[in-house]
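Worked example

This section walks through a single chain of length 156. The input is the sequence exactly as stored; nothing has been trimmed or padded.
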Amino acid sequence: MAEAKQVLDVTDIQKILPHRYPLLLLDRIIEFKRKERIVAIKNVTINEQFFQGHFPGYPIMPGVLIVEAIAQAGGALLLTEIPDQNEKLMVFAGIEKAKFRKPVVPGDQVRLEVDVIVWRNTAAKLMGKAFVGDKLACEATVSCQIVPRPAKPENS
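Given that input, the structure is written out below as tokens.
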């Protein structure tokens, strides 16, 4: 199967993922191969809310948020395969082998490369890598589970 190139901007991403500011961590999808692979971009700026406290005078993107960005990229890939995606959420079921190799700082552009290891209708295991330029910043294996999305309260 030929690799599908597909660019999605943040507006397109918001049609797939339920995340919003300040926790939407994807700015663009630059590669998308159904049920196999996704490559997404996160542009990191000093305006990120987490830099206020992590760490004053030495801003570093929290590693857990890099892993979250990997999971969001995987979610963007896999939720498109769910027929009733507006009624489902993809949530963490596990994080394995997370390694942080290089700090991510304001001004960096993080390239998230996520490959499907196992895909089932209700769960997936993904291998993700986050790069800044050609340097590996983070890698992790994440497991996700698809669950029903709670109904919105009528007054929201």
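What to look for: The CA atoms of residues 69 and 107 lie 17 Å apart.
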